[in-house]
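The methods section describes the discrete structure representation at length, but only in general terms. Each protein is reduced to its one-letter sequence and a matching series of backbone shape codes. I believe one specimen quoted in the main text would settle the matter. An entry of this sort, consisting of the sequence and the corresponding backbone structure tokens, reads as follows.
***
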Amino acid sequence: MSTAMNFGSKSFKPRAPDKGSFPLDHFGECKDFKDKFMKCLRDSSYDNSQCRLQSKDYLECRMEHQLMAKEPLEKLGFKDLMDPPPSQADSNTKP
């Protein structure tokens, strides 16, 4: 009986979601990317290391449509899939 009295005095305070939590894609803005990623997972017996490119594309789509916080792809573990900066790419082709 005393616990029922306490409910009225407590108020709910919303807070930002923990890192890694993000809104669902209710409008299907990134559905094609998700479908390609899921197909890759099925085709590779769920070995996600074989689907890193599709994963990167899916996360980029989510960031572009504000379905998750923008993060540098290097920070998300995709440094090896990034194109080198133009100055480095040019220096690699010069003799």
Summary: The helical segments are 2-7, 31-43, 52-64, 86-93.
